[in-house]
Amino acid sequence: MVFGYSARHSILVSLLIGLMWAGVGRAEVLKFPANDYDTIQEAINAANPQGGDTVLVAPGTYEENITLSNNVTLQGEETARTLLKSDNSTPVISINDLTAATVRNFTFIDADVGIQVLNSAGIVISNNVFNLDAENRGSLALDVSDNSEVKVEHNTFYNNLTALNSFSNRVKINNNIFAENTIAITPDTISENAANNCVDNNDTLGPVGTLRVTGDPLFAETSLRDFHLKEGSPCIDAANGDNDVIDDSDADIGAYGGADAEGKPFPVQEEGLNATDVSTDKLTGPFAIKLSWSANLSYLVTHTSKPGGYYLDYRQDDGTSTRVTVTANPGVTSTHTLTDLSPETAVKPTSPTLLSIAPSNQTLNITWSTVDDDDLLDYQLTYDDGTTSVPVPVGTNTSWQLTGLDNGTRYSISVVALARTRYFFTVTAFDSTTDENQSVSSSEVSIPLGPVRESEPSNVMVGLPERVITTPNLPDEGCFIATAAFGYYSAPQVQILRDLRDRYLLTNKAGQLFVQWYYIYGPTGARYINQHPALKPLVRVALYPLIIGSTFIMQASPLAKGLLVVLLMIGLCLYMTHRQLNRLVRQGAMG
Amino acid sequence: MSCTAFAAPFPSTIQGKTVEPEPSWSLEIKGGTFTPAIADWELFYDDDKTRRFAASLAYKVSRYFEVGIEGGRLRDHGKGYLPLNDIIGGDVTYELYPLNIYITLVGAFRENQLLVPYVGGGWTRAYYKISIVNQRGIKGSVDGFHYKAGVKILLDVLDQQNARNLRDKYGIDNTYLFLEYQSITAEVGMTPKVDLGGDSYLFGISFDY
Description:
The structure holds two protein chains of two kinds. Chain A is of the alpha/beta class. In chain A, the strands form seven sheets. Chain A has an eight-stranded parallel beta sheet with strand order 1-2-5-8-11-14-17-20, covered by helices on one side. In chain A, strands 3-6-9-12-15-18-21-22 form an eight-stranded parallel beta sheet, with no helix packed on it. The N and C termini of chain A lie far apart (160 Å). By secondary structure, chain B is mainly beta. Chain B contains four helices and twelve strands. In chain B, strand 7 and strand 8 form a beta hairpin. The A-B interface holds A 358-363, 403, 408, 464, 466-477, 489-490, 495, 499, 502-503, 519, 554-555 and B 38, 40-41, 43-44, 78, 80-85, 87, 89-92, 94, 128, 130, 132-143, 188-191, 194, 196.
């Protein structure tokens, strides 16, 4: 196909217009984190300055120094859980020389400067929490200079050294909460720009405006940085200028009020979320579990006349989840009891397999395979010496060291897996608005319920604990009394006794017991001999028969030992015969 | 032999002028392999060798004759034997501390001789210690003897500037790298006897001062 000049011109113009329209007209939402961006700054840099793009930041804690671009909205997905911080003195967010930009729905923590605005106009700072740690950091929450034009609306400034430092007459400060700050607003030259702010317990108030609300804002839980308002807060429905998107009433003052407020309730915390087995009989039932958790104290959840509540999701192992709706109460702790639960009672867990038994002195080191079962509670080891069977609870370990056993005894070892059905729970808060905004679910907690189910025993393995013979099997400095009597360790007489011990005593049970006894009491005797040197010759004389006997036992040939036994028997016979003859002679003399 | 040589092993100064005495002492630091003479060592300790470290101090009676003392250590983790089960088992740690008193004949025939051979030997006292997991350990000592032979390389010849610095700053007259073979025999009086000794190949550095 061939186009004429005018046709080609028309196509090019159309393409250019199309491209310009596509580039200028569409505002996009760039989500962070995303594969394309490693930092929030990279996401901002990727935003189209002509299109009014929004960089939407997912919940998380981000440590970064950000420089905002023109015509970009930087927004947190969830105010209470999207935290920005900085470890240096550079502002977390710098807004320099811009004509339009917005920052909203973030919580600023642990920083010297939260946001700094220089030489800019059309800047909106709304629905943020500034809680910068007044105790340890410079904590200047918002710093405006160079006569910048900034709207500071629906923010909560809590426990900062300076909440707002403004060297500009074009700063509008409306519907914010200033609480527990050292300085709320400084300097004093901008009072005509502030109105409808809620103030409480600031050391220096500054020009917060005449139409102000005073009194404790009643934050839900400042230690968790949950700055939602509790029922009775003077800041509820006290703003002017717009309605709340959350409950469609007059807007609240602070970070969770107004048109741009983010509506998710604060999540139920893992700490304080407990499950307790309250079954009538823990083995036979009826089975019940009582759950308790720290209540969400936001008035939108615990409202007296129109309360929100909690979704309680529970499941058994990998089973289908069941949801129960629990109406919130204004209390600090919420509870709910699940009754008529039916834990598994019949199915036995898989048997473990004994893998190895490594013996050593009075000890067996045992290993077995892992049983892959969500219900696994513990393993139980059993050792049996032929007369007694001893169960040993070993927790969830898959190896165990049995100690204190008798050397030379054969022990039959087996292991069983113990299981109990496990129930898993999460709790999700929802508010009383028509949309029933939901928090993210709590962390999952679990509890075992019902009777303990025992697997079939594993394979049986035999272990035989015994003394370790070292290589080289060397003599020990053990003959305390002989060493003391003969004066030095390496005396040949002492060496003979050591050899006797190593070769003839430690190789049998009775000998081992004797050596054990001797090692307890021998040192005491040796000490006594050393303290009384006069005894040494006597002890030496007393030991010589033992030394001679030991020498014979160890160094004589089997023939010599046999001859000795024969000679001893002959001697014994002669002795007995001699005694017999003597008795007969005495009887004959008397008769 | 001068008595002052014992008392003052470092260079002395007389009337502001440094007097360089003949080196009287030799300090050695060395390490290397030790192959125990114990039968079946490899079976229980995974390797037929283990590492050995030692240090010695010798008095140079003359250029050709030294008397010294040497202390060293070797250590290895291994297994024991379980006769009833007839298996290797249990965890043991074997330590040997050989203490040598020796004489050495040194083949230093001229000043600045690059390669200096030497042979020596003497009495050994071998202190042993065996630790056994879950069981009372064993320790003791036994007499023996050792001999050695090696060759030293005089570094001063290779780097004269450093040699001068060492002499001026620390009073070290000669610095050697050396390679040494050493054999220890130390039999424990059991039946059959066990030789705790073995063969060492040691590499080290020595300083004469």
